[in-house]
Amino acid sequence: MLRASVENADGAPVELRPVATGCGDTRVAHGAELIAFTDAVVLGDLEELPDARAALESVAGGDVTDRAAMVAGNFSMMNRALDAIGAPIGSGGTAVAAELGVEIPAHLL
Prior knowledge:
Helices cover 63% and strands 0% of the residues. By secondary structure, it is an all-alpha fold.
């Protein structure tokens, strides 16, 4: 989904591994700030959240920051709900997980 929808400032392809690992250049505009903010939102890190939000807002603006908060919150909520009911991950998820270097627990396959 990220690969299909993102537009890079220089037209180069998105590098997904840094998105998953949190290090390196994602080739997404303001990628480091987006990762830091998303991390704080998803982890509920109330100490880091104000600084991460301010950093993203300073480079990307308030509208982008608000949208990032909504997307991160929505994905986090959906993942927690699916985990809570033990919903299995579809076969398409295994290829994405492998590409991102994430291991899916056996009970969710």
